[in-house]
């Protein structure tokens, strides 16, 4: 594997006649170019499917240490910690920012000015 030891994993839901989810792992090369390392089509985004996907991903990594960046989906959190360890997991800044912003929007705090 000719890439940096940082992998980004995420999923997208499939629509149309074929339902399910596309799970993917993206790697970065030395020139900051992104390339897909692994793809998987599963029935839904849950713990069992993430565990299966990450188990296969770990097999192709052949024992290399990597840092996995992801959102905070419960299936990802549990399966990454079981297969790679919690010390090898980081949260995606964009997802954390979006969650933080949506929390404040729900609390109706955004735009209020203190007197």
UniProtKB/TrEMBL annotation:
Organism: Vitis vinifera
Pfam family, one: MULE
InterPro entries membership: MULE_transposase_dom
Protein name (database record): MULE transposase domain-containing protein
Occurrences of domain MULE transposase (ranges): 6-99
